[in-house]
Amino acid sequence: MSFAILDELAARAGEKFALHDRYLNPQMVRVLKTIGFDRHYTRAEGAYLFDQAGRRTLDLLSGFGVFAIGRNHPTVKRALADVLAADLPNLVQMDVSPLAGLLAERLLSQLPGQERVFFCNSGTEAVEAAIKLARAATRRAKLIFCEHAFHGLTMGALSLNGDPTFREGFGPLLPDTARIPWNDLPALEAALRGGDVAAFFVEPIQGKGVNLPADDYLAEAARLCHRHGALLVVDEVQTGLGRTGRFLATDTEKVDVDLVLLAKTLSGGYVPVGAVAGKRWIFDKTFDRMDRAVVHGSTFGKNDLAMAAGLAVLAVLEEERLIENAARRGESLLRRLRALMSRYEMLVDVRGRGLMIALEFGPPRSLALRAAWALLEKATKGLFCQMVTIPLFTRHQILTQVAGHEMYVIKLLPPLCLSQEDEDWIVRAFDEVIADCHKFPNAIWDLATTLTGNTLRSSAG
Q1: Which CATH topology does 74-319 take?
Q2: Which CATH number fits domain 12-69+321-460: 3.40.50.1970, 3.30.300.30, 1.20.120.330, 3.90.1150.10?
Q3: Whether 391 contacts 444, CB under 8 Å
Q4: In the chain, which residues fall in CATH 3.40.640.10?
Q5: Is the dihedral of CA 443, 444, 450, 456 positive or negative?
Q6: Alpha helices in 109-216, H assignment, sequence order
Q7: Does the predicted TM-score (pTM) go above 0.90?
Q8: Of the residues 245, 342, 375, 387, which has the fewest C-beta atoms closer than 10 A?
Q9: pLDDT in tens, 295-339
Q10: Which sequence positions are flagged as catalytic?
Q11: pLDDT tens across 32-63, in order?
């Protein structure tokens, strides 16, 4: 009997949580069941997920940015099908890939100042490659990163992670690293002054919290790095390829970037791919002789399916004007969500750029709400945000989540194909849920009590 993957899937429908509980990560299953996110999705299209009950959910996480052009885009599907049907000679190890050459050419045409590309399998692998390229180019070891930074979870990238939650239990990490405050040029200059820094790794907008830089921060950071002989490495894994209403978040800055890191969107949601784009002289310091042509690589990094997906994504972004839609839709969403701040005291900030948006909450002033807030804080810092995300999901069919550990920030990272109907859906849902959070007692605060009990029991256990 020949293997049929869809038959296999159908035969085991409904078992995914049991399988993950038994063989993968039971704590993740526990989290999903606790907050009521344990649904069985059967289909996805564009910005929407469809479950076995026929409910349509608006996905504002988009796979943490992977599905920027929407799920199951027909152009990407067709490109992948064409490559599979062509029986191409993929990954010939003593050869070079024409599709990789085409994707590199297309990418660099959108990245003024960058001249070479290295392809790999993910954002974190792009960070690892950039660490090696920077150290080889400068002959220095030290790496600087920011508080609250997120650059991935492999060991080198983890060494540049500004959140202790991710680092705990995995040391010792890379030596010769230094963490500095975000958006603090004097701190950066002080860290560079010793003349031993290979590179400063920075997100143009921090993913954990959606923290925006000052207007001149990135440009001045570049000048400081170059004055002290260090490289500026900009991690655009989440912000790049249209997310902020520009091809790169740094497009709005006059920033002399040495290495740009990309991933997520470039995959189309199908085949993992990462990229490091940079200046020729940096690459030439690593690949400086024929016997060093393979001194760094990635076995699957230039595979034909990944390269085809990347080419298709770039075509979709241009043909469907998704970057322009991200700018226009994001500006409208920010304006409308900010208007809620005057009505709800616990909504203290709405910020973002393009379709990377954060809603930040803070403690209330009224006595009854303050007491309830304090109970939540006793259980877990930042638990209040689940009072918003859970009813958004269960009542309004909107999938989103908090922006990081112990944060009062809910992050929106929707597909760039978001429609006017979707925008209205988002604003209406947030308005209703936040309004309910400002009433005590009610069902949302009953939910908070349940969550608090579960959290305290978990801690005791």
Answers
A1: Aspartate Aminotransferase; domain 2 (3.40.640)
A2: 3.90.1150.10
A3: yes
A4: 74-319
A5: negative
A6: 123-138, 155-158, 164-167, 185-192
A7: yes
A8: 342
A9: 999 999 999 999 999 999 999 999 999 999 999 999 999 999 999
A10: 150, 235, 264
A11: 998 889 999 999 999 999 999 999 999 999 99
